[in-house]
Amino acid sequence: MAPRRRPLAVVALILFLGIVVGTVVGEVVGLLLPEDKVIRKVFVNSTDFHLGPMHVDLVVFSFTLGFSLRVNLMSALGVFVVSFLLKWYW
């Protein structure tokens, strides 16, 4: 029996959840470690990806859209863990 193909939206959700969970775990671990240690910098150093801000001005109302994502080393581990859990669960 051939393995099931997952929709692209599910793969994107896996990546997004893994990045978010990994970043949060990395930030929490960084808070628990002493300030002057190198291992703290490994967990806390991150790269930010930005999209926007985009201002939309309609006649009746206007709004601004923007998105920012912080990725660190734990984000990669988070993507791996979430994909493994999803593969095991689903």
Tell me what you see in this structure.
The chain is an alpha+beta fold and 90 residues long. The protein has one domain. The protein is built from 3 helices and 2 strands. The chain has a two-stranded antiparallel sheet. Strand 1 and strand 2 form a beta hairpin. Helix 1 packs antiparallel against helix 2 and helix 1 crosses helix 3. The model has no long low-confidence stretch (mean pLDDT 81).
Residues in helix, %: 40-55%
> How large is the radius of gyration?
18 Å
For the biggest β-sheet, the strand order reads: 1-2
Shape: flat
Count the helices. How many?
3
Stretches where pLDDT falls below 50 for ≥5 residues? none
Mean pLDDT: 81
DSSP E strands, number: 2
Helix-strand string: HHEEH
Computed structural class: alpha+beta
What's the structural domain tally? 1
Q: Approximately what portion of the residues adopt beta-strand conformation? A: 25-35%
Determine the N-to-C terminus distance.
16 Å
Major beta-sheet overview: 2 strands, antiparallel
Q: What's the helix and strand layout?
A:
Layout: H1 8-32, H2 38-44, E1 46-57, E2 62-72, H3 73-89
Q: How would you summarize this macromolecular structure in one to three sentences?
A:
The chain has 90 residues and is of the alpha+beta class. The chain has helices spanning 8-32, 38-44, 73-89, and strands spanning 46-57, 62-72.
Summary keywords:
54% helix, two-stranded antiparallel sheet, single chain, 90 residues, alpha+beta
